[in-house]
Amino acid sequence: MSANSFGSLDKLQVGDRSYDIYRLDAVEGSARLPYSLKVLLENLLRTEDGANVTAEHIRALGQWDAKAQPSKEIQFTPARVIMQDFTGVPCVVDLATMREAVRDLGGDASKINPLAPAEMVIDHSVIVDYFGSPDAFERNVQREYERNRERYQFLRWGQTAFDEFKVVPPGTGIVHQVNIEHLARVVFDRNGVAYPDTCVGTDSHTTMENGIGVLGWGVGGIEAEAAMLGQPISMLIPRVVGFKLTGELPAGTTATDLVLTITEMLREHGVVGKFVEFYGEGVHALPLANRATIGNMSPEFGSTCAIFPIDDETLSYLRLTGRSEEQIALVEAYAKAQGLWLDPSVEPEFSEYLELDLATVVPSLAGPKRPQDRISLADAKQTWRRDVQNYVASVQGAADEASNESFPASDSPAISRDTNGDKPRHVDPNGSSRPHNRVPVTLDDGTTFELDHGHVAVAAITSCTNTSNPYVMIGAALLAKNAVEKGLTRKPWVKTSLAPGSQVVTDYYERSGLAPYLDKIGFNLVGYGCTTCIGNTGPLQPEISKAVNDNDLAVTAVLSGNRNFEGRISPDVKMNYLASPPLVIAYALAGTMDIDILNDPIAEGTDGPVYLRDIWPAPEEVASIVESSIGQEMFAQSYADVFKGDQRWAGLDIPSGDLFEWDAASTYVRKAPYFDGMTAEPEPVTDIHGARVLAKLGDSVTTDHISPAGSIKVGTPAAQYLQDNGVAVKDFNSYGSRRGNHEVMIRGTFANIRLRNQLLDGVEGGYTRDFTQDGAPQSFIYDAAQNYAAQGTPLVVIAGKEYGSGSSRDWAAKGTALLGVRAVIAQSYERIHRSNLIGLGVLPLQFKDGDSAESLGLTGTETFDITGVTALNEGGVPDEVTVKADGKEFTAIVRIDTPGEADYYRNGGILQYVLRNLIGK
């Protein structure tokens, strides 16, 4: 431990313990910085080495110009890395493969080891196969182990083979809730040094930790691997948006309503690549759980983080969740000594400012396919009637009570553009033409009903966003209690599920006596994991699925999650809505979106019609039960042996040794191909000639579109591969669960059932035109890519705005690279996916302002040449490159934003860069 050039090393006395700290006030200008930049400044002070981090970097951050555009690169070294199993399995595969690559190049394989704590929570693998019964949880967990035994054995091997790597076994909780309830330190104490807890994760919702003052965000798996191996994260000093909160939430509104309002505001404002920081008197009115909910949905805003400073509420939460008094004292003393304690009377300097009076928040939903598309609950019925016209081939039937309904006026018919690139089409802005297609259904138990457009096929209390929040969870349970007492239950066509973020939730449900009411209306415990929010909804009942698909019904899902992208929730569901847990239950009782849920009866009870207002719990009752039902001992008991697991986990047979013994027959875990043929020195960067377009895509193409995590459809290349390797259809599992097998994932790239490749007319799914064949016939994207590879033809992808939004999914970039895509040309990118593309050696290019594929007349049938890329060989980064597409020529912006990213690209990817550095040392 040594002082840096600022002489900032000092002592902090807390009780009878003394800690070394790097004082921020040693840097001129630090006092005026926002909380988030103070944390970054401490990081630089502590890691200054004269090379990666210099005194110039530190001064640049201290003298931060709030109004300037980001231009100064710094190197951020997170204190730890957190993973979930879908993204974490490929990380461990890559680390195991890197060990072999180091050995093959003459290095020491044991050097491939996490240098900072790396923790994984297995939460993405449980699927809702069973629901609505007391044994649903046990049966789902048993099925989970049957499906994922190979993966779990591999992860248990990793836990023994790598230092500083720990695994939280299945059935414990969702990664982000486990993180804030147990794993997050807030202030680290390591080797006698105290410093802010910072954490990057392989899931975009890592930002939930921002709610307790921990700076961190989601990164791609490959970037996380580099961070584990001691590689700092290269970033530009960001702009920071100050979001002032005033007032208090009105009765009847929830944290979900608040976060959907904030999402809408920040998406409209534009915060991609920026930090968002909350301040003001209204922060004090927000329970920690609400802050965590807001931080969680930072990816939906597009911001890098959405952080709250440390205050008394933070300490109360740490105490509630069982942190030691010594740790809590350290957090308080450190935050106050370093100016990291929230003072509502002080307004830090920000780049941009927004303000929200919490009293103006109203009950809301978001949908039918983007989190930022907030809908006031009062307008939900009319909005659904308008939007459903985009999902139904022909409007059947006339309006129900059309003359009595209204919608915000418009002077002309609205133009609706599907976010995945459909051509605009006119729809009825008043939502008055309500389509009907009533289909009779008989279930195997004899239950009969009619299924129609808008019927709620899935109602799921799911996801880290809301199940971590006791106020909305108790609210949901009380609503269930009130509904049961009035004789209500779910409609028979609704698949209901309850998947809490941690075991503490079911503990306080049991203590409060509310669990039986949830069970009675079908919201039985199905698992502790992400479930429906990541597409692990499981199948609908066969009779319902058949009716939906045979009759092209636009049925809906209502979930308490953070993502509602097309094709994500269920292959049978076209329209997905985000809502608070109480509203999820209300819509399960109503059974349809075609209802004015504030004014129409939800259902007929034992004593007549029941309205939402009749069963909605009073906020005072919710608060009282939260106060009386949740205690510190619950958290202490749940996390006492959090890494140990149950008998299933402990009983797994695992291989031993520093190098993994790959099974050539495995369809889950295979040695990664990224280092095949890698040389000790990188080859020079080359221009791109004779490239063909693999896919031409529209706006808001998400990583779900590029690399789906849901079911594997029979007849697709991925399904054919599995069947060729002896896997029965019932054992396909999901794309997410097979991320340790690149053969499956390559075949699943661009395979989302809702993807619309504009090279084809009106076709959905993973298809393209194959220009290697006469007539350029329709082909699976994977098959076409293999044909192009056989001819040595490089590939490009053309896209619109917000390309790669959504999950941090590194396979969206890995699959793109392994298909042979050399460059992507888009109108704009989401932060993580752009970074991931560079990390895999794919060149992200951006159309100039005002340019697009349409304005330039690009059809996707052209042959592309991209020149000027070779300027990277000279050590710098060119601002632009020249693109020629047959007779068309234009310049595109090179979106390699930092010198560090340029190093990664020159090496063919971030892992190759790290590997060569390790061998060089």
TrEMBL record:
The keyword Metal-binding applies. GO terms for biological process: propionate metabolic process, methylcitrate cycle; tricarboxylic acid cycle. It catalyses: citrate = D-threo-isocitrate. Keywords: 4Fe-4S, Iron, Iron-sulfur, Lyase, Metal-binding, RNA-binding, Tricarboxylic acid cycle. One of its GO terms (molecular function) is metal ion binding. Residues 64-591 form the Aconitase/3-isopropylmalate dehydratase large subunit alpha/beta/alpha domain. Gene3D superfamilies: 6.10.190.10, Aconitase, domain 3 (3.30.499.10), Aconitase, domain 4 (3.20.19.10). Its cofactor is [4Fe-4S] cluster. This is Aconitate hydratase. The gene is acnA.
